Structures are given as C-alpha cells and as structure tokens.
C-alpha cells in the first residue's frame, strides 16, 4: 500500500514497531519472525532495484535516509520484543525482589516507547519530504 500522507507513513512504521514489540508477549518469537521477514523483504527490494537498472549508489541514497531514524526505532522496538526474556532471566537469577525488577524493566520499556515514537515521527518526516 502506497502511503498518501506523512501520517500514513508514520502509522505504517508504528505498526511495524508494534509487530516487533509483539515478542514481549510471546518470549521474542514474534520479534524474531518479523526481523527475518523484514530482512528478506528489504533484500529482495534491493536486488530488484539493482536488477532493474538502478546502480548501487542510487539504491544506497534511497536507503540511507531510512537508516537515520527508522532503523534505530525498529531496533528499540526489537529490544522491547526481547524484554520478556530479560525479565525472566533477571527474576530467576537476580537477588533483587521481583517487584523491583518488574518496575525497572517497565520503566525501560516506557522510555523506549517514547524514543520509538520520536524517531518514527522524524523518520516519517524525512521519508515524506526528502526521499
């Protein structure tokens, strides 16, 4: 689906981030699946552009602006997707009370969500107005 506005781009990226964060509920499985599928899709897209006659530098110029904001945002979303594993390990092997661990990890997740929202908005602005 081709985005029709800056908000369309933004919400498409939010959905991608939520897909990566789904691993929080299912112990990272959703995150792994989404990362692999996204890697395959990006690779196929790059291959198709190169096979279609676009040179390597043109492809690079189209991809790099996404890497400035969107890739870090998606990596932060992936961190959230793997947080359930962190929480389980910390509860099993830490001497800290479980409540403290949960509060600490929840704070980290909330902070990451704010970072993701900001980075994705900036990424949508760059994608809409620059690329």
Average pLDDT figure: 91
Number of strands: 0
Our estimate of the beta-strand percent is: under 5%
Q: What is the H/E string?
A: HHHHH
- End-to-end gap: 17 Å
Task: Offer a quick outline of the entry.
The protein has 131 residues and is an all-alpha fold. Helices cover 82% and strands 0% of the residues.
Structure description:
Helix 1 (6-21) crosses helix 2, helix 1 crosses helix 3 and helix 4 packs antiparallel against helix 5. By secondary structure, this protein is an all-alpha fold. The mean pLDDT is 91. The protein is elongated and about 60 Å long. The protein has 5 helices and no strands. It is 82% helix and 0% strand.
Write the layout of secondary structure elements.
Layout: H1 6-21, H2 29-51, H3 56-81, H4 83-93, H5 98-129
Helix pairs in contact: 1-2, 1-3, 1-5, 2-3, 3-5, 4-5
